[in-house]
Amino acid sequence: MNKKVISIALIFITILIAGCTHNQAYKGQQVKDFRSNIMNEYKDITGLNISYSSHSIDFKYTLKPDYNEEAVKPIFTATREFIQSNNFQTEFFAAFFSKYYNGVNTQKVYPKTYITFEIKDNKTKTYIFFASNYETTYDSSKENIITNYRDWYYRNPDGSDIKLE
Fold first, then answer.
1. Within a domain: 4
2. Going residue by residue through the chain (165 aa), what tens digit of pLDDT does each one get?
3. Hey, which residues does 119 pair with through a beta bridge?
4. Which residues face 152 on adjacent strands?
5. Residue range of the domain that includes 41
6. How many domains in the chain?
7. How far apart are CA 41 and CA 144, in angstroms?
8. Alpha-carbon gap, residue 73 to 154, rounded angstroms
9. CATH code: domain of residue 153
């Protein structure tokens, strides 16, 4: 009987953890305007999902199978500039911190940001770019230098990361 109780408890904990870490769509006015503008400007985009969780902000683009590779760079650049803008930072983090740190007197941790491009053809191709808001790996025991998502990386298919210039 103890094994049954332990098994049920483990299942409950797994469900609880999974339920607490799912991404939620972010629908602030600036995001709505950005989505509309970028999808109108770049016809290779078929979808854009913007979501967040306690540990990440995700901009997930879906591109046409016959997309123009040259279009990825300006879409990435426009998205990065939007993420770094004072207006987005103010609007998003007011909502983010009120949700995850509402009234809690702890050090607030900024999430990583991901810009992902997915192309569904005969096989799915995914291009992942990401940035942290900290100069070094976050450490709760010290003062962390905030960089406004300055340093971006590309994740190679082999899992290695390349810093973008």
1. no
2. 565 555 454 444 444 444 455 677 777 888 899 999 999 999 999 999 999 887 888 999 999 988 888 888 999 999 999 999 988 888 887 777 777 666 555 666 778 899 999 987 778 888 899 998 777 676 667 777 777 788 899 998 888 888 887
3. 63, 125
4. 131
5. 23-163
6. 1
7. 37
8. 12
9. 3.30.300
